[in-house]
Amino acid sequence: MNSLHPTVTRVADTQWQAVGDDRVVGRGDTAQRPDGRLFVSIDAWHGAVFDRIAHAMLADLPAPLYTVVDEDDHEAASAWERAGFTFARREWGYRVPTDPHVTGLGPVRPPQDVTIVPAGEAEEAPLRALDRVVRDEVEAAAGWRTMPAEVLPRPAGSTVIDPSKYAVAQHAGRYVGLIRVAQLLRQPRIGLIAVRADHHRRGVARSLLAHTLGSLHRAGKASAWAEVDESNAAATALFEGIGARRAGSTVELVRS
């Protein structure tokens, strides 16, 4: 069978492979996110191969299914649309400056009764408890699907993989806010910033951001990366208010 009309085989629970002319010409994969949604991805050079892999995967998998594409990648978006996927939501990518003279966060301090525990110093048990609380609060409101989500393997019941990535805000001996930063080689990534509902509108998130960006600046990092759902007006205002600039966008698609 030629490379544009390959044989597609499910080679593992989460993997499909297209073979034509005795070589692999495309792959499909699935990954389940922490909220339970199943995301699919396909890597193929030709649209015809993509379509064959998509047809095989969709026949094997239960709906709904999700995927994510760069909004500027019109070819990929069209391929998924041919497979029956439609628009679900958009996420803006922001390049966030770290220099306090640019962000205006230099003078920002935590509320009087709140202290910041630096990354790597938070106690694991109360950190995990806070993470669970804020996730439940988000799910009860806008829904966790509107928050940036890293596709990471997670032990059953665990939502914090590496506690050293988190700085937290502490009030009266209790953790009330957190920020997670992945120290990637090229550019640090702010993966999450969240505050308990009973501590909203006190400047806790802003003080966490001031602490974290200040630390990155002192470490020689000129900017960080963050993603924000376009419907999240509070997060958009927080980042744009410190000089963050949109530098890209991704679109989540769904097939029901």
Please provide a brief summary of the model.
By secondary structure, the chain is of the alpha+beta class.
Task: Give the topology, please.
Layout (H helix, E strand, L loop, with lengths): L6 E6 L2 E6 L2 E10 L5 E7 L2 H14 L4 E6 L3 H9 L3 E12 L2 H4 L10 E4 L6 H17 L25 E6 L2 E9 L6 E7 L8 H15 L4 E7 L3 H8 L4 E11 L1
Structure write-up:
There is one protein chain. This protein has 256 residues and is α+β, with helices and mostly antiparallel strands. The chain has 2 domains: 7-91, 3-Layer(aba) Sandwich (Aminopeptidase); 93-249, Gcn5-related N-acetyltransferase (GNAT) (Aminopeptidase, 3-Layer(aba) Sandwich), CATH 3.40.630.30. 26% of the residues lie in helices and 36% in strands. The strands form 2 sheets. The chain has an 8-stranded mixed β-sheet with strand order 5-12-6-11-10-9-8-7. It has a 4-stranded antiparallel β-sheet with strand order 1-2-3-4, with helices on one face. Strand 1 (7-12) and strand 2 form a beta hairpin. InterPro entries: Acyl_CoA_acyltransferase (IPR016181), GNAT_dom (IPR000182).
Low-confidence regions: 149-153
Name the CATH class of the largest domain: Alpha Beta
Judging from the principal axes of the Cα atoms, what is the shape? elongated
The level of helicity is 25-40%
Structural class: alpha+beta
Main sheet characteristics: 8 strands, mixed
CATH architecture of the largest domain: 3-Layer(aba) Sandwich
Helix count, DSSP H or I runs of 4 or more residues:
6
Rg (CA only):
21 Å
Overall mean pLDDT: 89
The CATH topology of the largest domain, please? Aminopeptidase
Task: Give me the side-by-side strand order of the main sheet.
Answer: 5-12-6-11-10-9-8-7
The CATH H-level homologous superfamily of the largest domain: Gcn5-related N-acetyltransferase (GNAT)
Give the number of DSSP strands.
12
